[in-house]
Amino acid sequence: MSLAPTAQASAAADPLASRLPVTVITGFLGSGKSTLLRRLLHHPGMDRAAVIINEFGDVAIDHELVAASSEQMTLLGSGCLCCTLRTDLQETLRDLFIKRRSGEVIDFDRVFVETSGLSDPVPVLHTLRTDGLLGAQYRLNGVVTLVDAVNGMGQLDTMPEAAKQAAVADRLVVTKTDIADSASVARLLQRLEALNPFAICVTAIDGKLDPVFLADIAPRTLAARTEDLNHWLTPVAFSAKGASKVADPTQSAAPPGAHDSAIRSFCLWFDEPFTWEGLNAALQALAQLRGPDLLRVKGIVHVQGEPGPVVLQGAQHLFHPPVTLEAGHDTEQRSRIVFIVRNITRESVEGLFAAVGALGTTAAR
Predict the structure, then answer these.
(1) 206 to each of 18, 31, 62, 148, 295, how far by Cα in Å?
(2) Residue 55 belongs to a domain with what CATH number?
(3) Which of 33, 72, 337, 353 is most buried, taking the most CB atoms under 10 A from its CB?
């Protein structure tokens, strides 16, 4: 694995802006993924979305149309395109883009991928990283995980898949709060805060959610502003009512709950810019030594010789090609990298960066 910037800041072209955003929607069985998508796609402004589903839940996106169709691709009543995943995701995304370019399907402007309730979302992230064509045409917008307020605590206790789905999320949506008691909802929010303090969390009743919450999760332009970058990266905490607020990013993340002790998250800050050689060495060593337990890595880093900050994003053994943003849009002078890991301590990661001489100074807390 070797990182190198895939794009320099350019007034003539912005490759991030031209790539179609892919949003992964995951959550354990019965968490309400299909209900949320069905309502979301009828919202104004969502009539040019493509939806890829790999299972039929209790409530399909459009039950009559999907159930009656023998084709892989179906145009929904909302104007959106629904695509049943019958092969692998890479083939489906390639086929969708080819048909879009040839005019065989609608000119969709975003993609939602609904995963199976028992699936690990990380392979979807790998798909976007390992296929060169997909990387040129699509970009990862983020992972949205739904958690059932009625059954969520029990699922987090007993199902490792549910805990991992919540841990790697950029956005958390707590569903069924209208039929759960307020004390249970409050305990679940606290549990999610401990498990993944780097995700913004909201509640949804009967699948109703403002589409803005899912738009532009990750930087979508080389000219991304500081507030956009922090919105994607900065740790958040929960208020008493469950609304999110920005936490002090210099502090360690809250400790995980008793049942999630193997999963932890933290943010490392670095005062000096990296060298590409040092950054590559540190990330490669992490991936080789602890790849399966490196659940999610996101960072905005400064690298010697680059005109602007660099966006890092990876999971387990694979990292997306870094993208250099335009200079002057990130006013934070320090690099910051978020780690969501399993059975890996903050101190061991700090020690590894120091051992390989990534930047010649220790990580700032």
Answers:
(1) 34, 11, 16, 11, 30
(2) 3.40.50.300
(3) 33
